Amino acid sequence: MQVLGCEVAALDTVHYSNHKGYKQFKGAEVPAKEVLELYDGLKQSHLIDFDVVLSGYAPDAQVVEAIGVIGRDLKLRSSTKEGSFFWVLDPVMGDEGRLYVNEDAVPAYKSLLRDADLILPNQFEVELLSDTKIESFADLADAIAKLHIDYRLPHIIVTSIRFDASSPMISVVGSSARADGSARLFQVDVPALDCFFSGTGDMFAALTVAWLRHAVVEQNLSGSKSWRPPDHVEAVDLPLAKATEKVLGSMHSILEKTKLARDEELGRLPAVQGEKNNHLRKTRAAEVRLVRNLGSLSQPEAKFVATAFRV
Fold first, then answer.
1. Which of 134, 167, 180, 272 is a plausible cystine mate for 277, CB 3.0–4.6 Å?
2. pLDDT digits (tens, 9 = 90+) for 144-186
3. 170 CB neighbour count, 10 Å cutoff
């Protein structure tokens, strides 16, 4: 985000030695009370003139609720000037049918949906939020339409869609609602890489914030409520679609380079004994090579194009 011109203030919700992909870590979750205290510290020094909030991993309902307090406070403060505040909510709850937060976080996230401007769930998370079993693109379209109508959500992007594990492609489907709440659906397909990476959801969310701001400015929508485009704008021309193209261009380039570096590292390092040590070795080798590929962030490859979503 900083490379792409965003001034960022971070409020951590966990203090971990490493990400959970290693299947072991040390550290602790940040209590909701402490998250709010940090925000109050920023507020008392007049340091909360934010135009975007990106909220991500929260381990339990209390921290999700604290995020809600912060997001709603910032939204209220900007209510006299349309478009001056935008809330991106990444409802990090789980993946592939498995929760990795406490179960009470699910209804807590649902309680925030009416206040968010954009949500970024994966396939499993959109099932939880919409109470819809998703087994096809038609089901996905129904779930997105339901979220637009039930929660008046302006924008939705669903990541990591893959109904057939053998498919060589992964899809991202997004939508910006019209004034009547109906969906404008677009789809971007990218080749799947045969490698497990940790942190790609966070990467997608951060890049979406940066590139969506660029696209909104280009279309003169920064003074519009929730940065919502007029109804005549087609799905493939939405700022959300243009941002997604750039996000996936950057990500695919960086992840391809990461996989090459991982393969080289694993080929160079000596083999280790034991399933646990082998997992640690592979996980470390697959850490995303972000800093050494900053050019891919600022100049994404124009190789993925949004298409109109057809069921």
1. 272
2. 999 999 999 999 999 999 998 889 999 999 999 999 999 999 9
3. 17
